[in-house]
Amino acid sequence: MRVPLMAANWKMHKTVGEALAFVEAFLPRVRGVDGIEIVLAPPFTALDRTGEALAGSGVALAAQDCHAERFGAFTGEISATMLEDLGCTYAIVGHSERRTLCGETDTEVAGKAATLLRHGIRPIVCVGESLTEREEGRAFDRVGEQVDKSLASVPADKASEIVVAYEPIWAIGTGRTASPADAQEMHAFVRECLAKRFGDGAHGVRIQYGGSVKPENVYALMAQPDIDGALVGGASLDPESFAKIVCFAPPEESP
User: Fold this and answer.
1) Which of 38, 42, 57, 144 is packed most tightly, with the most Cβ within 10 A?
2) Which residue among 37, 84, 95, 104 is the active-site one?
């Protein structure tokens, strides 16, 4: 049984004070939630204090990126060693914004994922196609290539420790969302790709959906058999909104 993983990616939002205020407002809203894993990924500057505020709550701490090397002359970068020291249990790698804005390649993402695993941090490996690739009928080819190359350094016995996040680039921050059926179709395809690499271990890999996830659409997405959670951007910046996403109750029963 795959435990749903609901992760908040705050991107370049929230000062330390704002992050702490979020945690104070959020934790009471999810107290008692069972059978769901919750993760917050604040900016690097807020990791330490946010981690302290989350201590004992059951909500895990994640970083938004890391470097593939353990240390070295890489000005402005953060290593997995540093993230481990801060208590991070997850780290996002290969997000479409990193791939698009920073030119990250699948090979670089694979290196980061491997380094994180060596430090006991679970990588959330992002994959997804652009609008052009989808309209030209190349979505499955592109996503399959990303899955294959971005996980090239992950051994089969570590498959259960990774998370894959499918995030159609055209749906990130745009308000557009893949239909539940379209999202499921791609998630099922991703699991087929994982099965080719990891065999039966693919059944234990959680695959998140990311792309304008909101309280209004999360239940329909989570009802799909191969969608195991959500990687949430804008809607995770508000504690009430993200708490509703975490609980993903049917619309008529939303808290």
Assistant:
1) 42
2) 95
